Protein 1
Amino acid sequence: MRLLKAAAELRRKGILGLNERNLRLVGELNPRHLMRLVNDKSITKRLAVSAGIPTPDLIGTIRTSWEMRYLSDMLAHPGGVAIKPANGSQGNGILVITNPIKGGYRLANGARIDYGDLRFHVMNILSGMHSLGGLPDTALIEQRVRFAGIFDDVSFKGVPDIRIIVLKGVPILAMLRLPTAVSDGKANLHKGGVGVGLDLVTGASKLGMQHDKMIDHHPDTGHGLSGLYTPHWDEMLLMAARAYDVTKLGYLGADIVLDAERGPLLLELNGRPGIAIQVANRFGLRPHIEPVLARDTSVMSLEDRIAFGKEIYRAIHAGTESA
């Protein structure tokens, strides 16, 4: 009886559960044959570039042990590089190198790593250690993002990013994801990163969460999480909404980073974005998804879809501090 009451209360607050997300959103809106477009970061990057969506520059790829001979040249790229498994998930297998140092390289978290360990790491990527399903994978070598200093006070040795949830091409919810000491400088929430709800209309930050617990200050810097301004906000919404046009996935998460020189860059797309964004925003997804599911968005322009998402957000949060 107690469980039934708890479930009823969650539904009343508009909280979307994992099973409902899987059945109604992922299962019905994301055809399996299209999921490879976001599961493989090399395909995602190619689609984004062709659609005019800016991404971090690709320096090169390593697909076989024979191509390992090119690794040292790729690592010499000025400004640093990021090494990623093409089919990785949840931030696993990603290494960010800031610069070479005597006898090795400096990682973004301040640690030192030598060339032999880097080779071993890339070989592990090729073997499929970090890929979905453990299948052989490709290592992507990208130019390192030099993130804008706007979020310096609420980041710990890593790159913050913005996650925007897009439903049938309509942006509906967003959050800022912040690296912490616990997350080893990565912005992934499951590793201990901080999620901060963002006003969909303005991009302004509200309060946040870590390990599914509500917080109002960054655990490492002690800086308050509310009242932060996200620059280029409308441009980010356009990028996220356009991602639907190039993938045709009805439910996806667009992860965007803010580079100090180039502005917003699409980092990756996720065909199974989690539901912790509800905790970060402190309200449920359901009131935001129902109006979109009921509308034929295929006849709407890109700009109209963004305006529709903002309209829904305003209507739900009218009279609150989120409006």
Protein 2
Amino acid sequence: MSRLALDKLRARGALRVPSPGISFAAFFLLLSLRHPGMPFNAEFWGEDGWIWYPDAYNYGFRRLFQPHTGYLQTISRLIGLLAQPVPLTWAPFVFATTALAVQAAVATYVLSPRLTPAWPSLRGRALFALLYVALPNSWEVYGNVTNIHWHLGLLAFLVLVSAPAATWGGRVWDSAVLLLSGVSGPFCIFLLPIALWEIHARRDRTTLWRGGLIAAAVCTQAGFLLSASLDARPSVPLQAGPRMLARIVSMQVVLGAVLGEHWMHRYVNWRIWQNNLMPVAVLLGGTALCVVACLRGRPILRKPCVAGGLVLTAGLLKPNLGGSPPWPSLATPATGARYFVLPMLAWVGVLLTLSADRLLSLRAVGIGALAIMIVNLPGDWFYPNLPATGFQDAARAFERAPPGVTVKLGINPYVQIMTLTRH
């Protein structure tokens, strides 16, 4: 669909898209409702308290381009710097609000008319946006800066496949998203094939510019990854195997998106799951449905399936789970969920495609799976209860302390410790 045709559709009122501000506010509210205490009673999560805030407090801008786990994570360091002017008791609020804002921005962009040429169905995109906001088996990447780059990577993908911006403001937005995502995680590597795909299909200046930004980010991140020390990530035997692969993918992606973590904790104890019959059947069935949907659906579906497959492969080959054997850990519900968020969203796209197929049997499969997913959403809707850390009390003690006093603050998960010395 050309830009002229898109303008004609807008003029005729064929595209009834809510204003971006209203959409953003609605999605932000929905995301906040998943954790009623957030963002006003937020606490740091993981590297938010272990790395991003203390590095910004102790070193300022000197750590802005310091790699972590082998690559740049610039957006996380920028948010750490952004939180410095506010008291420590309010710093988690800045982190949580920014993280939720990025997630709301992704959902808002899904509704953008610029995605109409690739995905004309506004109803389909609206349902996808809502399922993204309510995605089961994903609380690990919710409302924290530690995992914000997963959402930013998805936003960069959406920018890559969208129609060219009609204004300078839109072009600046596109460039900023692609650049910031590119220097905030390894996702530019997985997006490079998509950028080249778009260049081959469109052959215009916009796609060349976008591809150039992704390529520049890949070169930058590759330089850090190649020069990273061998201990940038723990080296632990994967304990991999085909049966374990079936258990991981079928549980974390295929059933994880449809049934959620709440139900998977029950199913993993079933005998049919333990003897691997069910995981293998689910994996083969899910793979077959993905192939059928990609062949029969719109071309846009193939791109998130390729990108999601690359992310899944990289996550399985080089996961960062501390010192535990990775694959047996990943076969446990709620472990390493960040590696499966983008593949799960690609799977949701497959189900949406099947639900609109002309063939009744495929349409029944897609609608049935989506109906089960929607019915099960309440089980994974609310953020889980985590151990009390006493963070706010310790933060207030830190604010009252004279310079030179060291305070220890608890940080989830596992109530680990952040140590800060008052300036």
